[in-house]
Write a structure and sequence with these properties.
This protein has a two-stranded antiparallel sheet with strand order 1-2. Helix content is 88%, strand content 2%. It contains five helices and two strands, in the order αααββαα. By secondary structure, the chain is an all-alpha fold. It starts with a helix and ends with a helix.
């Protein structure tokens, strides 16, 4: 009979340990309910990472296009029409050179814009963060509304707290001035 009891005890202990773990996980999940602010910040961080990787991909793609365009331009320049070629042939060749140079300038301009967006700062933070916030507001307006409501409530609370502190300071100053004025009157 003792053998049966001793074999049941490890199972009972295992069951108890498992129940404790389940309860702990359940409690921690209840405690860790995300506030709108933390949820918004998590989604914003993901969007910022996505925007940075998008900017990097665009830069890589533009660099590749610029290399190809440079090779194409060099190839066209290498096939310059000869001295005895017709004026129309020379005109077409010049036209091709100008078109390829214009396209190269377009690519350079686009590259500059992508780099500026990635590195530029705005009054509210980096431009990438601003773009990520816009994307969240477009795709998840309810989350953005909750975040805005929470931030508004926080601002109101801070304003009320400041007003309360200012009021106490003013009351202290009045109290000090009353005490000083009474002591002056007595003398």
């Amino acid at each position: 009979m003792e053998a049966a009891i001793s074999t049941d005890r490890p199972r009972d202990t295992d069951n108890t340990v498992e129940k404790v773990r389940e309860l702990r996980d359940e409690q921690s999940s209840l405690v860790e309910t995300d506030s709108p602010v933390s949820l918004y910040n998590e989604v914003l961080a993901v969007q910022i990472d996505a925007k940075f990787s998008q900017a990097e991909r665009l830069e890589e793609k533009l660099e590749t296009l610029m290399e190809r365009q440079e090779a194409r331009l060099m190839q066209i320049e290498a096939h310059q029409p000869g001295f005895l070629s017709l004026p129309k042939t020379r005109s077409n060749w010049n036209q091709q050179i100008l078109q390829q140079q214009a396209y190269m300038q377009t690519l350079i301009g686009r590259m500059e814009v992508v780099r500026e967006i990635r590195e530029e700062m705005t009054p509210h933070g980096p431009r990438i963060e601003e773009l990520a916030a816009r994307k969240i507001r477009f795709h998840k307006p309810e989350m953005a509304a909750e975040f805005d409501a929470m931030m508004t409530a926080t601002r109101r609370h801070l304003e009320q707290e400041r007003a309360r502190v200012q009021k106490k300071e003013q009351e202290k100053k009045r109290g000090v001035s009353l005490v000083v004025s009474k002591s002056v009157e007595r003398s």
